[in-house]
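Minutes, methods subgroup
Present: GH (chair), OT, SY

1. OT presented the first of two proteins processed in the latest run. Sequence and structure tokens recorded below as shown on screen.
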Amino acid sequence: MTSPHASGIWDTFKRVIAPRADRFADRLEALGPNRASRDPNGAVRIDVDGNGTRDLTADKLDFPSLSSRSNLVIRWEYSLGSTLFLAWQHDRSGSDADRRFRFGERLGDLFRSPANNVLLVKLNYWLGL
């Protein structure tokens, strides 16, 4: 089963100024609060060139993600060389408006989200000619 919760909160914004610089620290320029800020709705306003005019707007970069995936495979050899396979896949995912990582509280939200179930059956019969 995969991790049931992931979240990301962006709090520092940078601009690439020298992508091939030898040192990683020389490749990026940090955008201070006068050049990158959030509006009350969570959208980020960015002034790339520093002239005081907003050049870019990014809506809600923070992300919450809830997901669970599991598989179960059963193999039964009911006769010499003849097998029956049952495979079940379960998947559920969702998102959450609260962008903070809180594993215990979000586990219940995950299991209340819609689920997809797939059941596969494969039957092999050995003719033995």
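2. SY then presented the second protein from the same run.
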Amino acid sequence: AAMAAVTGAMADVTIGGVVDQAVTTTKATTSAGVTTTTKSIAPNHNGSSELFFTGSEDLDGGMKASFRLGFNTSADDGTGTPSNRISYVGLSGGFGSVQLGQQWKPGFFVALAADPTVLSGTAGLVGPGQLVAYTANSITYDLPSLVPGLAVQYQMGRGETAGSNAGNNSGYSLTYTSGPFSAAYAAGKMTATSTTTFTTSVAATTLATLTANSSVLNSNITNVSYDLGMVKVTAYSAATKVAGTTSKHSGSGFGLSIPVSSSTRLAVLSSGATGTNGSGTQEKEKGTKYAVFHNISKRTMAYGFVGKSTTSGASNASGNTAFGIMHSF
């Protein structure tokens, strides 16, 4: 009450989150033909259970202040301390919007729109790579709408290493939507840190030895989609390359999203990729995912995934099945 007397009206604050849990089975086969199976209870659709606080305040003159504080939580075993997820504070108005904090890379949303199974499961999607991640210590700017249907976003992140560029990164995305048609492109680059790795998305085979404050990773992804009503068709292509080396990873995929009823949807994604390491050795990947989503209510959804990926050059394979429930509040 004392704070309200000094600062004026309090901002509107919402507490929300997601609890995602599934019965999962993961199989991994090594190049020697040894297969291991892991069964678990774990989040599989949202990637984790999440708790967040959001709020906004009108500042007059068409401006608004907003914030989000998000935390990953361990609903499956209760261990671990909640860790920072998407968190930021920002301003918006006629100039667009600017947000400071830890945020998704612009390429994350382009990859999300390209995959009708919503980036779920640990097997079956190959290609997007480095663009599907957070950016810590970042500034994200969304331009105001200049062309109907066109959205432009730019992001810059700092590694915060004294006297070094290690961890510095930047990226942008362009998204255009017109009726049932949508197309998007995103690109980004990052200077490696001492812990940065550049791997394939399936076998986790290191494709390059990175040098902190020197090696630069360049990534891009493009997607297009068209909603025909009875089925929505999506396609994407993506690539990551270590500048000045032969180390690279590129992939593409094709997906279908099929509404069975007002509450049930089927989805499939087929994708493939090729990786080349610093010595010129090449390996090829391919993957397929099948998914079903059923909305029990506005906030509760049941889902199922089956995915498999193989790496021909390394003779590795991974498979994943999951059947779970996700509740939003």
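Chair's summary of item 2: The longest strand covers residues 12-29.
Next meeting: continue with the remaining queue.
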